[in-house]
Amino acid sequence: LLHKDVQFIKQFNTFFVIFFRKSIFIKEGTIKHTKKFMNNVFISYRRDDSAGYAGRLADALEQMFGPGKIFRDVEDIPPGDDFVKAIENNLQNASVVLVVIGKSWLTAQDADGLLRLNDPKDFVRLEIETALKDKLQVVPVLVNNAVMPKPEELPESIAAIAYRQALEISDIRWDDDIKRLHKVLLTSISG
Predict the structure, then answer these.
(1) Those residues with Cβ within 8 angstroms of residue 168's Cβ, 6 or more apart along the chain or in another chain
(2) What pTM did the predictor assign?
(3) Cβ contact 79:141 at 8 Å
């Protein structure tokens, strides 16, 4: 390649990275950020309820959106990092939060036999509260034949997710369901 070709490629790659980090407005050679563009899809899930589905979902979406765009705690928080701060930072960078709900998501209990969602310090609850408070797009993703919880079954602070249109993902229709979710995410991040 000629030197000018290499320079063009470097400039294009810089523009491409900036475009995918933020939506941009170009005027007279200046770049101004106009609004948050998708730099993360945050996957919220219970490990004992839907870890396998969450992992498979993260892998499929990463193939579609590229590396570094999908956040799932197990793979994306290095050992030794502050778990709470990592969750908070990644929620701040998210455009969309996928709440993966399996059959025992609502009824999961702690060591004392209390419902985990009723604990104000439950990470899943905190993730959803933060997403709703920050007015992020929250998409319930139903797996393993789970059903949407009713508002009265949820703590008041997250009851609003019961009114969100859910997307069901099944093993039998996996590829088609992932394509549907991909379209939803593209609509959410471009609007």
Answers:
(1) 141, 142, 143, 177
(2) 0.77
(3) no
What is the average per-residue pLDDT within 15-21?
36
**Is 50 buried (19+), middle (13-18) or exposed (0-12) by CB count in 10 A?**
buried
Question: Do the strands 137-143 and 30-36 form a parallel or antiparallel pair, or are they unpaired?
Answer: unpaired
| Contact criterion met (CB below 8 Å) for 94 and 85 | no
Phi and psi at 109, nearest 5°, equal -120, 155
* Mean pLDDT of the 53-66 span: 92
The predicted-structure confidence for 92-136, as pLDDT tens digits, reads as follows: 888 999 999 999 999 999 999 999 999 999 999 999 999 999 999
What token pair was written down for 111?
Answer: 């060591």
Q: What's the CA gap between 19 and 38, in Å, rounded?
A: 10
Pairing, β 96-101 against β 167-169: unpaired
Q: How many other CB atoms are there within 10 angstroms of residue 3's CB atom? A: 7
Calculate ∠ Cα 60-58-44, nearest 5°.
145
Q: Is the pLDDT of residue 62 over 80?
A: yes
Spatial contact of 133 and 123, defined as CB atoms under 8 Å apart: no
